[in-house]
Design goal:
It is a single chain. The protein has 520 residues and is mainly α. It folds into four domains: 28-149, Alpha Horseshoe (Serine Threonine Protein Phosphatase 5, Tetratricopeptide repeat); 191-224; 269-371, 3-Layer(aba) Sandwich (Rossmann fold), CATH 3.40.50; 387-518, Arc Repressor Mutant, subunit A, CATH 1.10.10. It is built from 18 helices and seven strands. The strands form two sheets. It has a five-stranded parallel sheet with strand order 2-1-3-6-7, with helices on both faces. Strands 4-5 form a two-stranded antiparallel ribbon. The longest helix has 72 residues, at 182-253. It is elongated and about 135 Å long. The model is unreliable at 1-11, 13-22, 251-260 and 516-520 (pLDDT under 50).
């Protein structure tokens, strides 16, 4: 009992001694940080004289409490001495710091202090001391590496020990589980596999039997459906024959309706009828609906607006419309750059040549007196469409000779400007119909449709054919290699140029395979 009391008293005494010591260490650290902060502030404000006084007090404080100098404090005080050019104090400072580094048992803090010390020694031009500190730094760094390596080895040994422990535990607990020898396991596995294959074969045999039965039933149903479909088709054919015979009888018995509309495939071309009389509109639809989509306008203003918006392939107009003459409408259509390519047909109630000469001078392409004769009107419209085909052929001939010495003239100013702009931009691979339409003050849609009417070609096709015609002329003149000529006419890829050239000219592809030595 006396011994237990003595131990308790001794422990309480140690706690009482340790508590003031802990509080004292905390006060020292606070004072140290305060002094270091003051040194930093004085150094930043460039008050180096006061800073040196405080630095000396800071060093005395460290010596009094037997504390090593820190790397931050060393660099800060060395900077203050450098500003005051105090070599003697700096030498003592570096020597004391080296001594502190030698005494420090912790290699990490020792290496940090020595790194700053080497830097400051070189700064104060102390090569011998810097070399010594560098050697100490190397030893400290090697010690750190060795310690890290030793820690890793210990960690690996701990892992190996843990794996070994787990292995021993596993070996100790193996008797709790079922064990089977390898040969016996293979024998049981083979037996189970054979049993599974037998079950699979039996299942397949039963499935194959049902499959054949279902195929037989499906064949019977297909034959039944085929017979029903054939009977239905025969019945439908018989009804259709009866309907045709009845229709032929009705056609013979009744006269044809002049206002019967066309109900076949929808035509691509558009015809604009500017006519207020509904009966005339119905009659003209019966004459034109097999070749044109019919659009109608009841007034001159509406008709001109629709002509500008739709760009129809044909305009049929009454000679007198609400006080205005069809001659004025024809004149406005022919004077507009947007619509001057559209054929205009005028209808009048006057007989003879009265007004016909004025209509033709205004630009009308045809003049008919009502009532319109079907055959004559159809022949005139067909002649206008054939004239367009002749223009297409003439333009194709013009295009083939455009880059040669036998160039033929082109009367249409719209086409001439288009061809000229394309020729000027042949080398530009990014040149498109948008550029031409913008310069002609037309929308791309209107430009494309007008060009298609006049030439039968899309803008992309026209640009491509002009590039190829120009390339052909240059190749015939030996003006360069095929690749150089392809770039000259706007083809960025020689393979694309070769393919387009073969597709367009066919038998003239020998020009693409001329030896380079034959080129000028």
């Amino acid at each position: 009992m006396r011994r237990l009391t003595t131990h308790i008293f001794f422990v309480m005494l140690l706690c009482a001694v340790a508590q003031p010591s802990f509080g004292q260490d905390k006060a020292v650290n606070d004072t140290l940080n305060t002094r270091l902060t003051l040194l930093s502030q004085l150094s930043q404000s460039e008050n180096y004289e006061q800073a040196q006084v405080e630095a000396e007090g800071f060093r005395d404080f460290l010596k009094r409490h037997k504390l090593p100098i820190t790397p931050k404090a060393l660099a800060l005080i060395s900077n203050i001495y450098k500003a005051n050019a105090d070599d003697r104090s700096a030498t003592r400072l570096l020597s004391d710091a080296e001594l502190d580094a030698r005494k420090d048992p912790n290699p990490e803090t020792k290496a940090a202090l020595l790194a700053v010390l080497v830097k400051e020694c070189r700064r104060w031009d102390l090569p011998d001391q810097a070399l010594t500190c560098q050697q100490l730094l190397t030893i400290a760094q090697d010690s750190i590496v060795a310690r890290q390596r030793r820690a890793e080895i210990l960690k690996m040994e701990a892992k190996v020990d843990s794996i070994s422990a787990l292995r021993k535990k596993e070996m100790a607990e193996q008797h709790k589980y079922f064990h089977i020898e390898r040969d016996r396991a293979m024998m049981w596995g083979g037996a189970i596999g054979l049993a599974f294959l037998a079950l699979l074969f039996a299942y397949y045999r039963n499935t194959d039997h049902w499959r054949k039965l279902m195929e037989k039933k499906e064949l019977e149903w297909d034959m039944m459906r085929t017979n029903l479909r054939r009977e239905a088709e025969e019945h439908a054919i018989a009804q259709a024959v009866q309907a045709v015979e009845a229709a032929q009888t009705a056609v013979v018995a009744t006269p044809p309706d002049p206002y019967q509309m066309y109900h076949g495939p929808k035509p691509e071309q558009i015809a604009l009828l500017i006519e207020p009389n509904r009966q005339v509109v119905l009659y003209m639809k019966s004459l034109l609906s097999d070749r044109f989509q019919i659009e109608t306008a009841a007034s001159p203003t509406e008709g001109l607006q629709m002509a500008n918006d739709l760009l129809p392939d044909l305009v049929v107009c009454d000679a007198v419309l609400n006080g205005r003459t069809g001659i004025d409408i024809a004149r406005q259509i022919k004077l507009s750059e947007r619509t001057n390519h559209i054929p205009v047909v005028l209808l009048t109630d006057k007989f003879g040549n009265e007004g016909k000469l004025d209509a033709l001078r205004a630009g009308a392409d045809a003049w008919f007196t009502r009532p319109v004769i079907d055959d004559e009107f159809d022949a005139s419209v067909q002649r206008l469409l054939d004239t367009r085909k002749v223009k297409h052929e003439h333009f194709n001939r013009f295009l083939q000779l455009y880059f040669t010495d036998n160039r033929i003239p082109l009367d249409d100013s719209f086409l001439a400007r288009s061809v000229q702009m394309i020729e000027q931009n042949l080398a530009d691979p990014d040149f498109t119909a948008d550029n031409i339409a913008r310069k002609l003050q037309l929308t791309k849609t209107h430009y494309t449709k007008k060009l298609k009417v006049l030439t039968g070609k899309e803008p992309v096709q026209l640009i491509k054919e002009m590039r190829l015609e120009k390339a052909k002329v240059l190749l015939e003149k030996r003006a360069g290699t095929p690749q150089a000529i392809a770039e000259l006419v706007g083809f960025t890829n020689p393979g694309t140029f070769s393919l387009a050239f073969k597709e367009y000219f066919g038998e003239n592809t020998l020009l693409l395979h001329m030896p380079p030595r034959q080129l000028l």
